[in-house]
Write a structure and sequence with these properties.
292 residues; mainly alpha; Tetracycline Repressor, domain 2; 2 domains; 0% strand
């Protein structure tokens, strides 16, 4: 029983559960924003099942593809495949099954548009972003595209269209990911270098370009995140709360640009983790209070 329990825990690990949970929270936000009056918990749950399974497939197949890289890095060498606890074939089968079931769930329980976005996310993540990590510093930007899809998919699941609010959620999450992931890349730059991955934090030895991108994208995020209020979608709670959070995010991004240390990168990383769900909560509070 203990062996079976450990095996299923490893199966869950393949889905990259922390990333998957964050993606599902963003999908819920997109669904809530898209349906302030006609909110259906059953429709939301059905859509989340499909989105979650497609996301889990991305994680499992990504770990299958990158098992050689994972074996070279301290932060990933204990994952199920590089550690030898699981056969690569099992991860590939699991990723294939969750992809098929998740895609079918989106098609029959949601709508074709959301299904197509799910297929685009799956393809971009596995066959554009994943191989780009081995050859280009642009991989972070490339990965931010499928990474920003969940709230848009949640929105289209509710509305069956690409609306302004859904695209705005996509843009906010896209910009947020750059300083978030560059902070991670700075924290683990030695690991990435050991695996010979040309991540920006590895190529940019002094950190000047990394710092400029962190500050630049965090600065760009600030006005974009305030657009819902300027469009009349949200009110003062969202505007001033998001403004304060954006300034805090920018402040810690600036500190990392000045003090390029792992400690400062970790602080920025934690601030980014606070920023995103807080902004989402403020949006729901102002935009769709009747949901809850």
């Amino acid at each position: 029983m203990m062996v079976q329990s450990a095996y299923w825990r490893d199966m869950m690990t393949l889905t990259k559960p922390r990333i998957c949970v964050l993606a599902l929270l963003m999908a819920v936000l997109g669904y809530a924003v898209g349906s302030p009056d006609g909110f259906s918990w059953l429709a939301l749950i059905k859509s989340i099942i499909g989105i979650g399974l497609v996301g889990g497939s991305c994680g499992a197949i990504n770990m299958y593809i990158e098992r050689d890289i994972d074996a070279l890095m301290n932060r990933t060498k204990n994952r199920p495949l590089p550690s030898g606890r699981m056969r690569p074939r099992d991860a590939l089968i699991m990723g294939g099954i969750t992809f098929v079931i998740g895609t079918a769930a989106l098609w029959f329980w949601s709508n074709p548009l959301t299904t197509y976005l799910g297929l685009a996310t799956w393809f971009l993540y596995l066959f554009v972003y994943t191989p780009s990590k081995r050859v280009s510093t642009l991989s972070t930007l490339i990965g931010a595209i499928p990474g920003a899809m969940p709230p848009l998919m949640g929105y289209t699941a509710a509305t069956n269209r690409l609306g302004e609010e859904g695209l705005l959620l996509f843009g906010i999450l896209f910009l947020w990911q750059i300083p978030h992931f560059l902070a991670i890349a700075w924290m683990y730059r030695e690991d990435y270098a050991q695996a010979s991955l040309p991540i920006l934090s590895v190529v940019d030895i002094e950190g000047s370009t990394t710092s400029r991108q962190i500050v630049g994208y965090t600065l760009a995020l600030l006005p974009l995140s305030l657009l819902p209020t300027l469009w009349g979608v949200t009110g003062a709670w969202y505007f001033f709360g998001t403004l304060a959070l954006g300034i805090l995010f920018l402040f810690y991004g600036g500190l990392l640009a000045i003090r390029r240390t792992r400690v400062q990168a970790r602080k920025l990383f934690f601030v980014s983790l606070v920023y995103l769900p807080a902004v989402g909560a403020l949006w729901i509070w102002d935009r769709v209070p009747r949901v809850f």
